[in-house]
Structures are given as structure tokens and as C-alpha cells.
Amino acid sequence: MPESLRKPTLDKDLDKLTTMEMAAESVSQRVVAPGLAILFVVICAIVSGALVTGHQGAVVIVAAAVVGAYMALNIGANDVANNVGPAVGARAMKLGTALVIAAIFESAGALIAGGDVIGTISKGIISPEAVNTPEVFISAMLAALVSSALWIHLATWLKAPVSTTHSIVGGVMGSGIAAAGISAVQWTTMGSIALSWVISPLLGGVIAAAFLAFIKTAIIYREDKISAAVRWVPVLIAVMTGAFSAYLAIKGLKSLVEITLTLALVIGLGTGVLAWIISRPLIRRQARGLENRNQSLRKLFALPLVFSAALLSFAHGANDVANAVGPLAAIVHTAELGEVASKVSIPLWVMAVGAFGISLGLVLFGPRLIKLVGNEITKLNPMRAYCVALSAALTVIAASALGLPVSSTHIAVGAVFGVGFFREWYTARSQRRADYVAMRSETNGNGSTPKTTSKRASADDQRRRFLVRRAHFLTIVAAWLITVPAAAILSGVLFAVFRAVFS
Known about the structure:
One of its GO terms (biological process) is phosphate ion transmembrane transport. The protein has helices at residues 9-52, 58-78, 81-89, 95-113, 115-123, 134-157, 164-180, 187-220, 225-251, 261-287, 294-300, 302-337, 348-365, 367-376, 382-401, 408-429, 431-441, 452-464, 470-502. The chain has 19 helices and no strands. The protein has 503 residues and is mostly helical. It has one domain (35-224, 292-429, 466-502). The model is unreliable at 23-29 and 443-464 (pLDDT under 50). Helix content is 80%, strand content 0%. It is elongated.
């Protein structure tokens, strides 16, 4: 063998060491995230134990805090991906930036505006009068928490964006039925919640499609795209700012001063107008020198897309913190009083468990599903992603204001589907697009003109192609359908186990 083909022993050893280092780094990355998650759960146990020392039912409260922290981590890993996934998929911001923004606004939404929905979860599904024994009620809530957390963990591992709201509501319902029969469930409340589950994804899809239709009509297909964007992008920013301000006025300031709905709307209108005034020169300055084409519009939509992702994270934190700490709040209240109360107070530390647990779960385990929502359902650009985020944010805000624990997963993914299906419909029926495709097909790579049949075939292919991946659509809908019964059955079984062990 020639000398040049022989590998010195030292080089072989160095290659082995490099391979070992890469393997060790890969293993350490897989261990760090679970290790930090376990550390968070342990900290929650220690803090809750210190706060309830000497109280009645301290052991039960600490156990519930551990399960609530585990539940919050799973919500962050699974559900929060819907908030920033479209922005990441559209390449409007990097994954690290998206994680930071989502973590900050998730925590803010949970701590500022998460109280109303917690009341619905903790005492609106199971009637306290039907489960009037503290031990039974605590076992039911604990079973609901454990079953929901386990189901969401499994779904996250399978890379399925299931609804955490469905999981916890199904868990509460299943343990309630196991504890006191069907009569324990407040079916009127359940009916309104179930109806909101059906309406919310449809509403999210319709609103997202409507915004995309407006953007196409008012900006994309205008002769001067940049001038149209300079005119309308500040208006879209004003809509987001106004909605966010009105909601924050109603929810976040009610503990300081009483604000009526009319006053909140006036505040929203005022801040919206202010946002329009401020954003107009910024967008105009950003538009200078841009070419009159769609690629340039993406730059102008970067700022409103980031803002809408932050708004959706805030709204999600306000709505979905209930999934983590609603049953926990009920357990803490019942254990401390020794009786099932009709009104549940929410300690600050309970809210903090949900808020920080969701944020940490997002940072540690969220990127997998962020990529699914952002890249694998349909192709998103900044304009489409903005429509998804704004639609989902407005729908979640409205639901949280009404005290309805709707599924943000349903709303956000429904908005993604709405954008994709609208594009399919628009592609099949838009004469403007058909003319554009035909024009692009008039010359091939060599500058020659293809046959008329080829042009027609190209346009027909554009009309027929699917822009939403049907496999993901069917898989996600199937996961939505199975979540409630699966969580309910598991919760009922766990309740029976808890009662057998601790009674």
C-alpha cells in the first residue's frame, strides 16, 4: 500500500477521540433538558412545602404542586409551539428569538390575566355539591392532572400537537364521573366548552383567511405593492395594538381600578390610533429603496409578525395557565380549608408554577413541534404567518375574556389550515394568478415558447395542487378527537387507584 494512503496511528486515535466527544455532546444535550425539568419540579416541591408548612393537607398540596409543575412543562412543550411556529416557519425570526419572546409573554399573560379561566377549570366542570367530600374532590383533581400530563407527554413524544385544554377538561370530567357518576358533571358548562372547541378552530381559520384575502387584494396584487404596504401595514399593526390594549385593560387592570367594557374599547381605540401614528413613519422609512415585488413585502411584515407572535403568547398564557394550575388551585384551596368550596382563591405561587413551568417547557422541549407547525402543515411566508398569528390571538383573547377554556392548539392550527385552504381555493379560482402562471410558462429555460397545451397544463397543475398536507390534517384531527376520551378514561382509572391506595 502506498505511504500516502496509510493513516498514521495518531490520526486514527484523534478521530476516535473526536467521535467520542461528539457522541458525549449528543448524549449530554439529551440529558440536560430532562435534568433541568426535574430540577424545576423539585424546586416547586420545595417552595410549595415551605409555603404550606403547618397547614392542613400539606403533603397533598406538595404532591399536587409537583404534578402541576409537570403538567405546565408539558403544556410548554406541546401547546406553545402554535404561538411562534408560524413566525419561525416564515423565517421572520430565529428559533432562539422566538423562544425568548414566547417565554416572556407567556409568563406575563399567565400572571396578569389568567384568573378567570382558572375558575372555569377548577370549579365549573365538576359540581362541588356532587363531590362534597374533600378527600374525594382532591383525588378527582389530582387524577385529572396526572392523566392529562401523561397524555400530553405521550403526544409530545409522538410529535402530535394535541390540545392540552381537551386533555385537562377530559381528565376532570373522567375523574368526576368516576367519583360521583354522570350527575357530578355540569353538562351545561361542558356543552358551552365543547361548542367553543368546534367554533374556535373554524373561527380562527375564517379570520386568518379573511386577513390573507385582504392582504392579497389591498397589497400583493396592487400595481404599486410598496405604496400599498406603506398605507395598510400600519393599519394592521394598529388593529393588533388596539385589541391587545383593550384586553389588557379589562383583565390586567381590574385589580387596580374598575374598567367597563366601553372604557376598555375606548382605550383600545386610542392605543390603536397611537400605534398607527408611530408605525407609519417607521414602515415608510423601512420601505425606501425596496423593489416593487412580493419578496420586498416580507421585510415590511417582519415587525407586525413579531408583535403578533408576542400577542398570541400573552393570550395563550392567559388562557392555558388554567390547564396547569386550575385543578392545582382547587386542591390547594380544598386541602387548606378541609372542605370543598364553591369559590376558589388562587395563590400567587400557584400562578407562578403554571407561568414559569409553561415557559421552561417551551424552551427545553418546544422546538420539535414549532418546526411541525411552522414548516410541515403548509408553506408559510411572513404575510401568511402574520394572518395566522393575529387570527389566533384575537380568537384566544375573546375566549379568555368570556372565561371559556378553548384550545389554542385548535385555534392556531385551524388558522394555519385556513390560510392553506384559502390559498388552494384562491389558486384554483383566481384568473389573475392563472394569467400570471401562463405568462411565466410562455418561455422556457432556452427562451423558446412551449406549446399551448403545455401552458394550459402548467396552469391547470397550479390550480389542482394541494397546499395543505392532507396527511398532517387527518393526523391532527384524529388526535383532537381521541384526546378527550383517552384523558377521561385514564383519569377515571387513576382516580380508582388513588382511592384504593389512600382510603
